[in-house]
Every structure is written in structure tokens, then in C-alpha cells.
């Protein structure tokens, strides 16, 4: 009943990130512990990439099953291929940087922080491109009057836009935080981590708890496109 294997991205990634958030508790009392720092750093940096992968897969299924491929700037299969490759590469960069950042050597630590920042910037740019693709689809179906049909797939599109916006807030915060360095205002005021990092991610995945997409994918009927409706020859 409305099951999908790719839906496992969310609970698995959420579990791993919960571990990373939990490790901030012992980190507060053991700030010099390398193992605790490594787990906390990697488990809060990397799992959100799986949240993005969920959105990429949903985008492809939405385009192919609910509307039409012509609404996507590039082929939906290529969206997954290009952006997932980008995310894997940038996540690997962040992981490598996180390992160097844990070094007791100040030079290696600084290099690691710069590498993590580079990975975050590249991942943010990649995801920003995906957000533009989603907005382009929304503009196209709205222009052609498909949103007026009140099809179930409308909830998929709105939820996809909502969650992507929430995730984008998180990545902008992360880039800003790392750009400021270890002594920056954001990293020294932990409240912003919860408000601008954890909370947007939580809100983004909770949207799918309310509107689980496979429910609407199965209920949607792909519209028939003709020249009269689209105004195209």
C-alpha cells in the first residue's frame, strides 16, 4: 500500500543524522575527542544528501508518470544521473575534508575546513540548479492550465517545491557557517544550527509524512496533451 523502495532514503538518512545530532551531547563535554568529533561531523554533513536524492527520484517519477517529459529542461533520467553524480562527488569531498579537519595539525585542519566548504558550495550550486528545474516545471504546467484540473499530482509538485526550498535554506546556512570559520558568529551560537540546519531538514521531510508521494503518483492520471489545450502545433 503506497510502498516504494526509494522511500527508504528518508528514514535511513534521518536515523544516521539523528546519531550525529545525539553525538553533539558528548561532544559538549569532550570537545577534544577525535572519534566523537568525526561521528558528529560526518553524520550531520552527509545524510542530507540522501534527502536530496529522494527529491531527484520523485522529480523523475513525477515528470514521467504525471505530466510530460517536455516540461523538463533536460531528460528526467539525466537529471538523476548528473545531479546524483554531483552529490556523490561533493559528499566525498566533504567527507575527505571532514577527516582532515579532525587533525591536530593546524595546517591540515585549515585545509580540511576549506575542502569541506568547497564541497558544500558545489553541492549547493548543484541543488540550486535542481530547484530551478522544479520551478520551471511548475511554470510550465501552470501556464498550460494543468494546475486547474485539481489532479492528485498537484500535491506532489507543491510538496517537492516546499521541501526543496527548506533544504536550500539549510545549505545556504551551512555554506555561510563554514565560510565564517571556527570562530565565526554562527558556529559559536549553536541556536542557529538548530534553527537554520536541523529545523529546515525536519520540516522538509515532515512534508512527505503528511503527503506521501506514492499515494498521489498511483492516483494520478496522466493528462492527454493536444494542440487546443497547449496552444502549440
Count of domain modules: 1
Quaternary structure annotation: single chain
Tell me the radius of gyration.
Answer: 20 Å
Percent of residues in helical segments? over 70%
By DSSP (H or I, 4+ residues per run), the number of helices equals 10
Structural class: mainly alpha
Biggest sheet, open or closed, and with what strands and sense? none
Tell me the series of helices and strands, N- to C-terminal: HHHHHHHHHH
* Morphology: elongated
Average of the residue pLDDT scores? 83
Number of strands: 0
Spatial gap, N to C terminus: 40 Å
Uncertain runs: 226-233
Strand percentage, roughly? under 5%
Transmembrane segments: 7-25, 37-58, 79-96, 116-135, 156-173, 193-212
GO cellular component, one term: membrane
Pfam family, one: RTA1
Main location: membrane
How would you portray this structure in words?
Keywords: Membrane, Transmembrane, Transmembrane helix. It is found in: Membrane. The chain is mainly alpha-helical. It has one domain. Helices cover 75% and strands 0% of the residues. The chain contains ten helices and no strands. Helix 1 runs antiparallel to helix 3. The longest helix is centred in the middle third of the chain and has 38 residues. The C terminus is likely disordered.
Describe this protein with a few key phrases.
233 residues; elongated; disordered C terminus
List the SSEs and their pairings:
Elements: H1 9-22, H2 24-29, H3 34-45, H4 48-66, H5 76-101, H6 106-143, H7 153-180, H8 191-210, H9 213-219, H10 227-230
